[in-house]
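Lab meeting notes turned into a lecture example. A postdoc, R.K., suggested we walk through two folding results consecutively so the class can see how the record format repeats. The first protein's sequence and structure tokens come next.
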Amino acid sequence: MRTDSAGGTHEWDKPFGDARLCAAIADRITFRCTLIQTGTESYPFRTTQDSRFAAAD
């Protein structure tokens, strides 16, 4: 399974509104997983931004 987040891990609790709930969900998802932080911008995020800037011109 692969997940992607445009924000850093410090922002993961914002969609859920509860840091404890977010921690529990992340704990279940990441159990026995290998986490890789690439430090790069995601392709979907970049293409969305590019299309928005092109539409604004």
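The second example is placed directly after the first for contrast:
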Amino acid sequence: MNMRANTLTDKFVNNDVGFDDDIVVVFDSDCILCSHWVRFILRHEASENVRFASSRKTFGKALADRFDFKPEDLNLTYLVVRRGQALTKSDATVILLGELKRPWSWFCVLRFIPRVIRDGIYDIVARNRLRWFGMKKDCLLPTPEQRHRFLD
């Protein structure tokens, strides 16, 4: 792990969450849909302030624990930490959409749909994601240029 990642790890896990504009996404690295979403973000983000951590590795587990998320919670959603706030389900998705280049960022208008509807749709996809999309047999391997963005 490089120096930037070590600094992020220390600050995020030691209750100093919310510095700079860094956003951390804790995701299920075994889920094909989740891994594709991470790749999509990497390909279309407007700036490089989103970091990633597997929910199955040390940093992802520690950050989730910091916000009282258990491993079984992360089977149904991913966790986004931004400015000291933990976001999940459709709120997390809307925040990440806002980090993308146009035209993808325009989808953050979804925030105007009531959360109960957004989260209802999210829950259906989350419950069925492994059946619909499957699981990876090997983990997501970032390119050397992307490696500094992964915290585990």
